[in-house]
Amino acid sequence: MVRPKLPVIARDPIPAILLLLALAGCTPPTSSPAPQLLLLISVDTLRADRLGSYGSELGISPNLDAFAEQSQVFEAAYAPTSFTLPSISALLTGRYPEEIGILGNRSALAPSVPTLATALREAGWRSAAVVGNLVLRRNAGLAEGFDVYDDDLQDLESTRGWPERVARDTTDAALAQLDGFPRNHDDRLFLWVHYQDPHGPYTPPVGHRERFLESERAKQDGQRDLPEATGHRGRGHIPDYQVVDEQREVAFYRAGYDGEIHYLDAELGRLLSVLDERELTPRSVVVFTADHGESLGERDYWFAHGDRLDEALVRVPLLLRVPGLAPARRYDIAGLVDVNPTLLRLASERPVDPDAPGRDLLASDARAIDSVPYLATLGAGGPTRFGIIADGHKFVMTHSDHGWQQELYRLGYEGRNLADSDPERARMLHERLVALRRDLQPSVPVRRQRLSEQDQRNLRALGYLQSPETTHSD
After folding, report:
1. CATH number of 384-462
2. Among 59, 108, 180, 263, which one is most buried in terms of CB atoms within 10 A?
3. What stretch(es) of the chain map to CATH 3.30.1120?
4. How far, in Å, CA of 130 to CA of 153, rounded?
5. Terminal-residue alpha carbon distance, the chain
6. What is the pTM of this model?
7. Distance between CA atoms of 85 and 336, rounded to whole angstroms?
8. What is the mean pLDDT of each run of 10 residues along the chain (474 residues)?
9. Which SS3 state, helix, strand or coil, does residue 315 take?
């Protein structure tokens, strides 16, 4: 059965002349040369609102903020879930995780599932990947289509000792892939770089945490001490894997998260500056985003992610810099599944698959249309949660021992559940969510990674072997 295209919501009509003016900066000029480099940068555990380009006044991200001034900045972009492998799989395939059999970080993408790398290889591109997260090693199935898949993780995370690659080493490895590029005027390269920082435990280089400690202590709850508890859920406590130097103070950890981003920002600046130095910028399309965010105490959820669908966890930065395309603030809703069709259209003029959930973010009418992101906690453990973003609202269904419960929020405002006060909207969005889930037709069976004993120990330390990856019904 062919799955119909997921519905989109048109914005309120505006005068035709204003619409034409708004769209004028949305489509790259036809005179711009075809890109030779596609650079896709994804960052682990980076919430959008910590960046200056998204309103933060902390001064954490000067290089990213400068990059944003040259880019299309999507104010409301959403990951499909709040943990790594399903979210990154959606980014690279343009499909929701349940469609491609990715229900958790132990899943494996089937070789038959098309990705950016496989599609671009068919179009004559070389491709390389540099990843810093153990979850994305080649066992996960993402290496298909890449000529080089660099998952050499030589660093060790501080509290659990599992392998990772810190930002400095990730940048060095990415720059190594750019050495000698382009080899000739026909050489085209797709480079995907995934940074592990600022994933916890927050242990930035000396000086980065200290830079933000005073301002974090000045906040109302900054000097609050939290208990430590076993596990990774963070409900009312610090997860044990996050504990550094036996500290309990909220400000210490928030400043550590800020410091990790500040350190990451310097490395991103180093990577992006090389494009200028090597005169690659005029021929490069650069996309910057994250797999998910991190909760820093919202709704008493501390320094954790994975089993919730809060804004702090699923709203992600999305910046798109295209030669010849004017910088702009974008207020149309976007999702990570939109990146694949957008880049394929830019790189190969490949039309958007009408049966896929994503859309071309640079199409002539793109600003007048919202994506309708679908959210799910999948196999993260804890209560089952499904959600949808539509009609300016987020609607979430949660299953627990008490049955199904509804949450309805005006988008960006999670202080008040409107499910009881606006029952008609809740009913409408519930119907859309149920219909969307019904239409999610898996294209391949769920596959599990083959894990060595060491892999199992590493993933158990990460909290990823605590619950089975199963599907859930409405």
Report:
1. 3.30.1120
2. 263
3. 384-462
4. 10
5. 20
6. 0.89
7. 13
8. 32 33 43 83 98 97 98 98 96 97 91 96 97 95 97 85 92 97 94 96 96 96 92 85 94 98 98 97 97 96 92 98 97 98 91 90 96 93 93 95 93 94 98 94 76 62 47 29
9. strand
